[in-house]
Amino acid sequence: MRIDWLIPCRYAELADGLATIVGAGADVVHVSGLPAQAGVSAVVRIAGVAEPETEYQLTAQVLGPDFEPAGDALHLALRLGDRSPYNPDGWEDHVMLPLAVPFTAEEAGAHTLEVRIEERSAAVPLHVVVD
């Protein structure tokens, strides 16, 4: 399995295999002071050939400016269901997941949202701003 894409956003709704994403690209996190409890929302699409009865481990975490963890990681266990009847033979399976990842902003500036599944990862930059 691999991460097909990762999009930070303000809000996401998933229904019938489709995602409605509001505020796609919302990569600025506003806080009123430091340190601050904060969070980021995102949608991730996982793709690949799923092995039946296999549980996959997904981890999402915000890293601070020094690339050290800015709080606890979010851990999810995924077990993909039956193949979609609309996927022709040879097509990859996929699933989209909304994520809400909390973190502690110790300082303003560049941060990173990193998502991992198996040995693969994707990351997007975030910017923490003190208002």
Describe this structure in words.
It is a single chain. The protein has a single domain (2-130), classed as Immunoglobulins (Immunoglobulin-like), CATH 2.60.40.10. It is 0% helix and 62% strand. The chain has strands at 2-9, 11-15, 18-22, 28-31, 36-48, 56-63, 74-78, 93-105, 109-117, 120-130. The strands form three sheets. It has a five-stranded mixed β-sheet, with no helix packed on it. Strand 2 and strand 3 form a beta hairpin. The chain is elongated and about 50 Å long. The termini are far apart. The model has no long low-confidence stretch (mean pLDDT 93).
Strand and helix map with partners:
Elements: E1 2-9, E2 11-15, E3 18-22, E4 28-31, E5 36-48, E6 56-63, E7 74-78, E8 93-105, E9 109-117, E10 120-130
Parallel strand pairs: 4-10
Antiparallel strand pairs: 1-5, 2-3, 5-8, 6-7, 6-9, 9-10
Give a quick rundown of the structure.
With 131 residues, the chain is mainly β. The chain contains no helices and 10 strands.
